[in-house]
TrEMBL record:
Assigned protein family: Belongs to the binding-protein-dependent transport system permease family.
Cellular location(s): Cell membrane
InterPro entries per UniProt: AA_ABC_Transporter_Permease, MetI-like, MetI-like_sf
Superkingdom per UniProt: Bacteria
Protein name, per record: Methionine ABC transporter permease
Annotated ranges, domain ABC transmembrane type-1: 12-204
Signal peptide: none
Membrane topology, as annotated: Multi-pass membrane protein
Transmembrane segments: 20-39, 51-74, 80-100, 145-167, 187-209
Keywords attached to this entry: Cell membrane, Membrane, Transmembrane, Transmembrane helix, Transport
């Protein structure tokens, strides 16, 4: 095997860092956007058709661009933010641009699953829009929101591996540099195996947590 255990450990840590920070920043962006997509749509709390149509269109544009293309297209933005377009820190920027709108859609779908009767009951009690959103809508959708963020995390793991194709670091970079370019099939299998374990572990944890919330 051409790579050492230290190299694999370092690549794993880079992947965890990329996914962790990307998930944090993209959730901070996507969560409020998802809420806005729900409350500003026709017939909802803060109905605003022009705002909804513009926001909906922008999110659709970003979601339409494949990650590998988006990563190259926003290189000037990445360089402006982190000072370089190569490495783990640089990969986080396109990952956030990719996952933010995706999370917004997932949050939107989760909140739309909540029975309209919950909102109507909250309105009847005189709750403000803010109270309805954070004391009724979000808590009712919590189980679904956990699954949504689990799906987003799994998607980020896959995207972080693709970032390795352009020097983003992490397990994807290790698989490309050693597994593909140097024909080291052992390294390829190891990196793929680690990614599979990560995805399975995250998905199982998310499913379990969602079930516990639903039953509580």
């Amino acid at each position: 095997m051409l790579v050492s255990t230290d190299q694999i450990t370092e690549a794993l840590w880079e992947t965890i860092s990329m996914v962790g920070f990307s998930l944090l920043f993209s959730t901070l962006i996507g969560f409020p956007l998802g809420i806005l997509l729900v409350v500003t749509r026709k017939g909802h709390l803060l109905e605003n058709a022009p705002f909804f149509n513009v926001l909906n269109g922008i999110i659709n544009v970003f979601r339409s661009v494949p990650f590998i293309i988006l990563m190259v297209a926003i290189i000037p933005v990445t360089r402006f933010i982190v000072g370089t377009s190569i490495g783990t820190a640089a990969a986080i920027v396109p990952l956030v641009f990719y996952a933010g709108p995706y999370i917004a859609r997932l949050i939107e779908n989760s909140l739309l699953e909540v029975d309209k009767g919950v909102v109507e009951a909250a309105e009847a009690m005189g709750a403000t829009p803010g109270q309805i959103i954070f004391r009724f809508l979000v808590p009712e959708a919590l189980s679904s929101l956990v699954l949504a963020l689990t799906i987003a995390t799994v998607g980020l793991i896959g995207a972080s591996a693709m970032a390795g194709a352009v020097g983003g670091g992490g397990l994807g970079d290790l698989a490309i540099t050693y597994g593909y370019q140097r024909f080291d099939t052992t390294t390829m299998y190891i990196t793929v195996g680690i990614l599979i374990i990560m995805v399975q572990g995250l998905q199982s944890t998310g499913n379990l947590l969602s079930k516990k919330i639903r039953r509580s």
